[in-house]
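SAND domain-containing protein
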Amino acid sequence: MALIPRATFDWDLYDHFAKAFCLANPKFVRSAIEDYIRPVFQHGDIVLEVECGSNNGYMYLSKLCQGSRGACIYYQGSWLTPNEFQFLSGRETAKDWKRSIRHCGKSMKLLLNKGILTSHPIACDCNSCRNSARME
């Protein structure tokens, strides 16, 4: 899976991304977000390179449905939920995927708590949330 190289980074799209995520937490500005995340863009989706243990995958933020329910991580040709990715990474005894899965050395828990990332609300009715609810 080829991601857009950093050399062709679209700062206008990045500004749109930054503004969208700053709405949830107005104290964050573009420079603060740059300290926490390094997004890439794939087919109109915002994607974060994530790691857990020695495994690396790609988290598609549009598929981050209600926390661990959505299959939002693309790893070795398969879509996985955060819990499944954590399990495959040898962290099956860890109790919280948000602490185990990291982006640029920052845990998902930190990014979610700071309001930089958000998961879909419980009442969300988007296609990704409906699909993840059907899989349960």
